[in-house]
Write a structure and sequence with these properties.
alpha/beta; elongated; cell membrane; transmembrane transporter activity; ExbD; transmembrane helix
Length: 135
């Protein structure tokens, strides 16, 4: 009996405790998830018009795309023009430092672009830009 008890203690001492290693792995995983920057896309590809005075915008957090058939896309979902303001309000509440960038296709109507810009301003976002390509 005494020998059996000694064997159990010896087996338990020889086992490697994996808990500290798992803790380190999970902490690293959380660190990489928190520090990763995710690329935001509006959901469709548009042919932006060219502009000689195009400037790079760094903090564009709310991207809205208007297709050549005047469809409005936010967060990879097609949105009705009446729901644009509510979507912008929601996204702006998540990140108040963000700005709105509208990626309008060069074949889209100006009327739709103006409605989206008005919806952004009605939602309280006054930093609104229209995306173009450099010439």
């Amino acid at each position: 009996m005494k020998q059996h008890f000694a064997n159990l203690i010896e087996e338990e001492e020889s086992a490697i405790d994996m808990t500290p290693m798992l803790d380190v792995v999970f902490i690293m995983l959380i660190f990489f998830i928190v520090t990763a920057s995710f690329v935001k896309e509006a959901g469709i590809d548009v042919n932006r018009p060219d502009a000689a005075t195009a400037v790079q915008k760094d903090r564009a957090n709310i991207l809205i795309a208007i297709s050549e058939s005047n469809e409005i896309w936010i967060d990879k979902r097609q949105v009705d023009v009446r729901a644009v303001q509510a979507n912008i309000e929601r996204l702006y509440a998540e990140n108040p430092q963000g700005s709105v960038v509208i990626q309008a296709d060069q074949e889209s109507n100006t009327r739709v672009l103006i409605k989206v810009m008005d919806a952004a301003r009605s939602a309280g976002v006054y930093d609104v830009s229209v995306a173009t390509d450099e010439e």
